[in-house]
Amino acid sequence: MSGYTKTNLKREVEDAAKKYGMAPDLEYHVGREPLDTEKSAVSYLRLAPDFRMPFGHKHKQQEEIYVLVRGAAHLKLDDEVIELTQWDAVRIAKDTVRNLEAGSEGAELILIGAPNTGPNDAEMLQDWWTD
Fold first, then answer.
1. CA 105 – CA 114 distance, rounded (Å)
2. pLDDT tens-digit profile of 4-56?
3. Architecture category of domain 40-116 in CATH
4. Nearest by Cα to 51 from 101, 110, 108
5. How far is C-alpha 37 from the geometric centre of its chain's CA atoms?
6. How does DSSP assign 55-68, residue by residue?
7. Sign (positive/negative) of CA torsion 95, 72, 66, 28?
8. Where are the domains of the chain?
9. pLDDT tens-digit series, residues 78-112
10. Alpha-carbon distance 37 to 34, whole Å?
11. For residues 65 and 92, what is the distance between their CA atoms, to the nearest angstrom?
């Protein structure tokens, strides 16, 4: 077995948002399995302009880091909303409920999580962020 795994998150990893009927406003490529990660996880997330994720979520074990690589966004963390600009990085504790809303030009993020807990660590909260 090789000491590394390489994949292209956009071209070679399935867009989970399409599979769940959330495209074209959302694009989500989960790299955990394609990269065969043992202790961490990484994903690519794109939100269309002014699109708000339709659910919040938190984790049982996994801490996450969100890095905004393009655009602007608002990130709701429990009851607080913070503004993100390009190259902002935010560490989010496992039990903090979170949700994103893209700015007028949209948003692209890299999401990093550890430990690698597999797909059943997140608790989804529908209609969590309402105005």
1. 29
2. 999 999 999 999 999 989 999 999 999 999 999 999 999 999 999 999 999 99
3. Sandwich (2.60)
4. 101
5. 17
6. EEEEESS-EEEEEE
7. positive
8. 40-116
9. 999 999 999 999 999 999 999 999 999 999 999 99
10. 8
11. 6
Q: Retrieve residue 26's tokens.
A: 């959302």
Q: Which residue has the tokens 């590394």?
A: 4
Write phi, then psi, for 63 (nearest 5 degrees): -85, 145
pTM for the predicted model, two decimal places: 0.94
DSSP string for the chain = --S-----TTTTS-BHHHHTT-TTTEEEEE-HHHHT-SS-EEEEEEE-TT-B-SEEEEESS-EEEEEEEEEEEEEEETTEEEEE-TT-EEEE-TT--EEEEEEEEEEEEEEEEES---TTSEEEEET----
d(CA 128, CA 117): 23
